[in-house]
Amino acid sequence: MSGLILAVVLVFGFMTAQQSAFAAAAGKKLVIAYAAMNARVCPLWAPRERGFFTKYGIEAETLFVRGAPTLVSAMASNEIEIGYTGGTAVIGAVASGADLKVLSALTNRITYDLVVRPGIKTPEDLRGKIFGVQSIGGTVWMGAILALEHLGLDPERDKIRIIAAGDQTVLAQALASGTIDATVLDGVQSRPLHAKGFPILAELDKTKLPILSSSIVAREPYIQKNPQVVENVMRAVIEGAAFCLSPLQKPTTLKILQKYLRITEKDAEEGYKDMVTGLDRKPYAAPAGVTNVVRLMKRTNPKVENVKPETLIDDRILKKLDQSGFIDEMLTKYGVK
Predict the structure, then answer these.
(1) What pTM did the predictor assign?
(2) pLDDT for 15
(3) DSSP β-ladder status, 60-64 and 30-34
(4) Residue 69: which residues within 8 A CB-CB, separation 6 or more?
(5) Helices 265-278 and 187-195: crossing angle, nearest 10°?
(6) Alpha-carbon gap, residue 230 to 216, rounded angstroms
(7) d(CA 335, CA 242)
(8) Are 147 and 200 in contact (CB under 8 A)?
């Protein structure tokens, strides 16, 4: 009898410990971080606002981190499970040994406007000037480099000083105050400045310059250990993107943009235009975007030359969702063309 009681106690204790461990795991929120503050982050905000994460069984917390390099460092140290960020910092980290994979990219081209202070009228006028970016090595920095290259300029040769000044809002303020002479901005920031007399030297969206941007990123060990979690996150983000792009859901999307970007309804309208133009309907990461980033980054970091699109991009889960009809189903559900 005493042996039976001991066995029951041990079994009960084991079951209680299991339940406690499960409850602790269930209570831990998945951290999904983003480094940009623009309308193209709407596919991450909409799932939080509309309950898509919960719909797909994810208890998620979205977190803004200033600067892609900081976000990537936090991922490498397991402080963040999934990132929504540009590819520049990711490629730099992978070149240094990080085991990050790009699962999807919602934007695969430069979408910024190159805005300059009054008095600068031609690309040649940028020689010897100060060009502001968010952070050295980040996606805005890459946009600046590609913009200058498109205009036939080279920062070193043409003595263009590139400085880290802050996010898009800070960059716009710095340009308005004369602290910097040029920067690349989303339309929501560039159009008001243009209306005040600040010239736009190039609308880069029209150039179709490839770049790896707005990417869903995770560590390879995490993907292997939690494939269903990663798939469900991608389901939520894909539905979030379809929701944000839906003409029928535009009023709600504008409110989401106003809330997270802390902007007026008028500015939200401008941001909405940028988002509709910038987000890809089928969010595959384009190898050409990786190649372009590597090509320019290797000037200052030769190690990135070892980063290849075929080893950086892991789109198996995205292909699974696409082939199952999920992406088309979401686009149809929300009336996205």
Answers:
(1) 0.82
(2) 37
(3) parallel
(4) 89, 92, 93, 135, 137, 138
(5) 120
(6) 10
(7) 8
(8) no
Q: 197 to each of 103, 115, 120, 123, 187, how far by Cα in Å?
A: 41, 10, 11, 17, 15
Strand-pair partners of 50? none
Alpha carbon distances (Å) from 140 to 112, 213, 278, 284: 9, 10, 14, 21
| 101-143 pLDDT tens trace | 999 999 999 989 999 999 999 999 999 999 999 888 777 888 8
DSSP 282: S
Distance of CA 162 to the CA centre of its chain: 22
CA dist 36 to 90, 174, 192, 252, Å? 14, 18, 20, 21
Residue carrying structure tokens 């941001």: 271
Contact in structure between 332 and 246 (CB atoms under 8 Å): no
Helix (H) or strand (E) holding 54: helix 52-55
pLDDT band, very low/low/confident/very high, at 147 (cuts 50, 70, 90): very high
- Full 3-state SS string of 93-132: HHHCCCCEEEEEEEEEECCCEEEECCCCCCHHHHCCCEEE
Phi, psi of 10 (to 5 degrees): -65, -45
